[in-house]
Amino acid sequence: MKLLITNCSQIATPQSSRLVKGEQMKNIALYKNSTFCIEDGIIKDIVPDHKANKLIDENCIMIDAGGKTAIPAFVDCHSHYLFAGQRREEFFMRQEGKTYIDILNAGGGIGNTVNKTRLASKEDLIKKGLTHLDNALSQGITLTEGKSGYGLDRECEIKQLEAMKELDRIHPVKTVRTFLGAHAVAKEFEDRSDEYIDYIIHQILPIIKKQNHADFCDVFCEKGVFTSEQAYKLLSAALSMGLGAKIHADEMISTKGAELACRLGAISADHLLAVSDEGINCLAKSETVAVLLPCTAFCLGSNYAPARRIIDSGGGVALGTDYNPGSCNCFSISLTAALAYFEMKMSPAEILTALTVNAAAALGKATEYGSIEIGKKADILLLDTDDYRDIIYQTNKNLVKTVIAGGDIVYKDGEKKW
């Protein structure tokens, strides 16, 4: 089937099939009054409206965009979207000044989510995941990461990953799976974190690799969680088995997580609120994506990651939501974009790049997703505006009117179409 989307007042897109770094993040293509052609789920051509007639044939379906702006669909490259339960009370306790220990003593913390996720069936998780992915679709997200990490044992970690694999099969929002067994030390291994890392390496990773449960392995490298030495040991083992590496790095203090990510060739280093100058220099010289998560800083009332310094030093920045039940119960693309603009001083073009092709690069998918270019997957948004910068200017509304995923219209005017 051939689909022609005509009368786009603007098409705004990065042009790359890999990580875009430094000042190049500002370089996006802008087409005025244009038509794009989709065939078999792939972008086949982009032409001015007055030349669209040459693309029309008897098998063609034409859609008038009505002067809307087309941009690549958003990619959420850091998400913990699959879990059971909620942690509403600790969210408000934190704002009231309660400490992490206070929250733990009240039954909060990651252990709360782990207990509830262990009790949930895979069917329960799939049902909850469908609700989240429907909501993500309405935000214009067509590719997301899904991290495990709320089981902290073999059975529940695999249950989470299997649920995400089924969601990827049945939902138009595609999920890249990341194994985050090293999200925290399991209660069964309290005060024995080295043994827990060995348990993950020898008892879980081989099964995940053999059964193709995940694409990446992640670790929370942070003071009081896992050391850089433990992170190196785990990720080296994962890499030797053919999994990609990601790191929760330098969120609260610098643990040299960014440096470790670059040394290992990790696909991304995420958070980076406390990244060192040396870490910024390493990111500038590597292909490791700096994944920044402004909604988490907003929810925690903390400082923001130094996006400007990373970009100006030559690094490549992506933006993710960090949707999770504890520190950031939010997957708003418009809020992510606004915070990146106002608090992290990124330009509109850099933000578009960070939410699309660079976010896809952080998931190893930049050759398929993240830009409106001939040969790429037709994952495209039509926005209710004539200027893509309104995703920042009009933060008060969701501008996404139509979502095209793999060449199919899967969301339009507030209703899902799949």
Give a written overview of the molecule.
With about 425 residues, the chain is α/β, with parallel strands linked by helices. About 35% of the residues lie in helices and about 25% in strands. The protein contains 15 helices and 17 strands. It has helices at about 90-95, 100-105, 110-120, 120-140, 155-170, 195-210, 230-240, 255-265, 275-285, 295-300, 305-310, 335-340, 350-355, 355-360, 390-395, and strands at about 1-15, 30-40, 40-50, 60-65, 70, 75, 140-145, 175-180, 215-220, 245-250, 270, 290, 315-320, 380-385, 400-405, 410, 415. Strands 1, 2, 3, 4, 5, 14, 15, 16 and 17 form a 9-stranded mixed beta sheet that branches. Strands 6-7-8-9-10-11-12-13 form an 8-stranded parallel beta sheet. Helix 5 links the parallel strand 7 (about 140-145) and strand 8. The mean pLDDT is about 95.
Please describe the biggest sheet, giving its number of strands, its sense, and whether it closes into a barrel.
9 strands, mixed
Radius of gyration: 21 Å
Number of strands: 17
Helix content: 25-40%
Helix count, DSSP H or I runs of 4 or more residues: 15
Overall morphology: globular
Distance between the termini: 17 Å
What does the oligomeric state look like here? Answer: single chain
Based on secondary structure, the structural category is alpha/beta
- Kindly report the average pLDDT value: 96
Low-confidence stretches: none
Kindly estimate the percentage of residues that lie in beta strands according to DSSP: 15-25%
Name the descriptors.
418 residues; alpha/beta; globular
